[in-house]
Amino acid sequence: MQLSNSDKAQVLIQALPYIQKYNNKVVVINYGGNAMTDERLKHAVMSDIVLLSLVGIKVVLIHGGGPEINQMLTKIGKQAKFVGGLRYTDEETMDVVQMVLAGKVNKDLVSLLGQSKGRALGLCGVDDRMIQAKKRSGEDLGFVGEIEKINPRPILDALEMGYIPVVSTIGVDKKGQKYNINADTAAAAIAAELRAENLILMTDIRGLLMDKDDDSTLIPVLNASEVAYYKNKGIISGGMIPKIDCCVEAVRRGVKKAFIIDGRIEHSILIEMLSDEGIGTMIK
Predict the structure, then answer these.
(1) How far, in Å, CA of 106 to CA of 62, rounded?
(2) Rounded Cα–Cα distance for residues 20 and 26 (Å)
(3) Most CB atoms closer than 10 Å: which of 107, 189, 238, 267?
């Protein structure tokens, strides 16, 4: 559909209050799911992030890379193993995780942002011990870690210099041992440490649904105090539990709002942030 010049002007006018609201504020985006594997969506996400950066919003991009890790494991003849939905990470797998996340995926994203005329800087949780971690408690998952502390200095320095920080979620302990860190968890912890205005988690579903099989039952706004009720009702279940928990943790630690949005929708970040419409579930 072709927009007239008048329509284009109206779009910009409607976006202006949101641009003013977010100017010079930090927004943390966790990028994953289908939006990371579909080339058309990938380019849309990168252009969204560059646009936000150019209008004065300080975007921090956190990323995973599960499909790419699986592909590399297959190439070297190693079977991916999951326990309760989490990747079991032995020493060899940890080497692959580091190589793929901090190497290929991170630099591919930096390059894509550059192609969209953005200034991006690739970072890893090991840099200046940004993501300080320890071995995850409970069931043994190998070198899967939980976060002890976030050192925000590398991210703040990158933002100060006008870069879009692109962060791969690998943690490190005091002895230098690397750990595989869940990207949602890392994004929430980083957003809280930065006192971000927004945390945005990109997923492959519309958001939190009253009926998981019916997109029309989207819950657009969720108060943190309602989470226990929805869990008891079974509405928050399965893979949505850790995502909601991350959002709640972030808002309780000072993030203004957290959003779970559908990364399969082109320009979903802009629709959520710069329009009256909104497309996902907001947790506040």
Answers:
(1) 9
(2) 13
(3) 189
51 by Cβ neighbours in 10 Å (0-12 / 13-18 / 19+) ranks as: buried
**Which pLDDT score is estimated for 2?**
65
* Tokens 């995502």, residue located: 243
| Helices (H), ranges, 183-276 | 183-193, 227-232, 240-252, 268-273
Stated as kind and residue range, the H or E segment containing 170 is strand 170-172
> Which amino acid makes up residue 280?
G
- What distances in angstroms separate CA 224 from CA 26, 221, 242, one per listed residue? 21, 10, 14
Measured between alpha carbons, how far is 160 from 144 in angstroms, rounded to an integer? Answer: 32
**Strands 86-87 and 221-222, bridge-based pairing:** unpaired
Q: Tell me whether residue 40 is exposed, middle or buried, using C-beta atoms within 10 angstroms of its C-beta: 0 to 12, 13 to 18, 19 or more.
A: exposed
Amino acid at 244: I
The span from the CA of 168 to the CA of 28, in Å, is 13
pLDDT at position 111 is 97
Instruction: Give residue 34's pLDDT.
Output: 66
Residues of the chain with pLDDT under 70: 1-3, 8, 34
Question: How far apart are the C-alpha atoms of 257 and 275, rounded to whole Å?
Answer: 16
Condensed to tens digits (0 to 9), the pLDDT of residues 44-59 reads 999 999 999 999 999 9
Name the 3-class secondary structure at 228: helix
Nearest residue to 149 (alpha-carbon basis) of 168, 130, 126:
130
Contact 154, 128 (CB under 8 A): yes
Residue 266 Cα distances to 90, 205, 225, angstroms: 36, 13, 31
Q: What is the rounded CA–CA span in Å between residue 168 and residue 194?
A: 17
Residue indicated by tokens 């791969």: 168
CA distance 230 to 182: 23
Q: Within 57-182, where are the H helices?
A: 66-75, 91-98, 106-115, 153-160
